Amino acid sequence: MPGAPFLAVGLIFLVPCAIAGLALVSAGLGRSRSAAHAMMSALCVLAVAALFYFFCGYAWQSGVGPAHIFHVGGKEWNWLGANRFFLHSSTLEYSGASLALLGIFSVAIAALIPLSAGADRWRLGASCISTAVFAGWTFPLFAHWVWGGWLWQLGSNYSLGSGFLDAGGSGTIQAVGGLTALSIAWLLGPRHGKYTHDGLPTAIPGHNGVLVMLGCMLSLVGWIALNGAGAVLYYRSPQIPLVAINTILSACAACLAAAAVTRLRFGKPDLSLTANGFVGGLAASSAACAWVIPAEALVIGAVAGVLVTLSVEWIELYMGVDDPGGSISAHAVGGLWGLLAVGIFASQAHVGQFDSVPPDHGQWLAQLIGVATLIGFVLPLTYGLNWLIDRVYRQRVDAEGERQGMDLHELGAGAYPEFIVHSDEFIER
């Protein structure tokens, strides 16, 4: 596709809109006494993710250049990049630099997702340490498998369709970030006052719905760019307008589906769950955005909206996991559904139209292997790494810090100094 590298770079420059959007959603769905801390954490996590991806993450991830290979069944399998650390100039020709820039933004988006699950109780230092491990190892490892490694090779080595497909990162960015969020929420435990003595969850509403909605709008812009850049750089897809249309339709369908479900269940549409559904639709759109027709993208989004809305309640009620921003449902559940949707909807008629992607055969199994890898390997890996971090550096703030609010406890100042943001409800519980 003539001019594709320049188009990809132009799209990459818009991806930070998704970073800003997710930060605003996380802050808005948390408590007012932790709003400044949420934004400060997002900024620090962005910085740590970029630096550690620069140190070693890109070297592990890059599918271009040398790699660590192992042999199984007479076939070569690529399991880890072997490029030089610190973004050495030998790896940064034009296409390599574009991939590195997209990787920096991608790992930042994925690293922001756990912040929402740990809102109101995750220490700033702990989130930075966790992000360093995430950006330096967990994310690059799975990203390499998807965009050049053994999952990519399932098509050529075992004729499983086109190999594992994930154009914009439903699995690589969203599900990896969402499963890490689940690990963090498990380790930190619920906020004080979230569950009654009988174990039933109580509602702790977000403090600013306007920030949440603004975050959703910014995320839409960033997601269109993210999906488009991924489709161009990883799969040489020329269908950027189609990618944009599919991304928008998936998000809109998910938004309306979430609003409808909450209207039916609660009598009125719920703002936070509708926002989660919208983000879940974006997450689900990423994997198949280049290989489905708009009608199929709409179905993918609608199913994501329903799944995300129901999973928020299920995770709180039956798993006992406190996820203030709904990030586990929006990103992990939405992302995993998006991966499966490739196997369902990206048929031979759609996948085979691109020279870079061979006709479909066994695509469903390739996607299923990727999902199983995420749940069976990435989730235990990220939980184990964060468990080790917690043994060395306690990740949860103490009870007094949570009562006081993360803003005052860790930053010494609140986001809204002109207003009283504390109440007695915390003490009464």
Question: What is the CATH architecture annotation?
Answer: Orthogonal Bundle
Low-pLDDT regions: 352-359
Strand order of the largest sheet: 1-2
Spell out the CATH superfamily: Ammonium transporter AmtB like domains
Strand-and-helix sequence, N→C? HHHEEHHHHHHHHHHHHHH
CATH topology-level fold name: Ammonium transporter fold
Q: Which structural class fits the helix and strand makeup?
A: mainly alpha
Tally the structural domains. 1
Q: How many angstroms does the end-to-end distance come to?
A: 61 Å
List the helices and strands and how they pair.
Elements: H1 4-12, H2 16-29, H3 35-61, E1 67-72, E2 75-81, H4 94-117, H5 124-146, H6 154-158, H7 170-188, H8 209-235, H9 240-266, H10 271-288, H11 294-318, H12 327-345, H13 348-351, H14 363-392, H15 399-404, H16 406-411, H17 425-428
Antiparallel strand pairs: 1-2
